[in-house]
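re: that chain from earlier
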Amino acid sequence: MTALASAAMAAPAAAAEAPVIVPLQGLEPVIPMDAPSVATGVPVPVPGGPTGFQEGQSGLLPDVTLPRVPVASTIPETVVAAQLPEVIEGSEPGKALFATPSSPVKATTPGATVGNAVVAPRGDRLGLPDLAVPEVGILTPAVSGALDSQAGLAQPTA
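^ sequence. v structure.
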């Protein structure tokens, strides 16, 4: 049981992705050139272990918390390539390329906290815990990552 719990709490080694190739060959009768090719992928998010169970500020018992869950993934590489039209007869103009390399992304889901309604005992209540109005808070989500794109021309391959 302990081994299963520790495996579930471990950070993912590598995020997976599902490859996607967008079929654009149906455009060839409409446009006066070869259809562009688009190759990308769909990131598969991998959740980590929840955090923030014991983030209480004060009181006898810890705050009741809806923990934030970390999620890691990788935005897959995307390549859009379009054959350039032949401007001068007999020339090979190449391809226009737009590419974004794969990049890791880390995020955390939103969370909530409800302050404890039981506070430390006061002297006039015979040592019994006192009641208070619970405080409610929202833990904001977070996303971190970087995306770098490149545009340019590629020479035709022989």
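Residues 1-15 have pLDDT under 50 and may be disordered.
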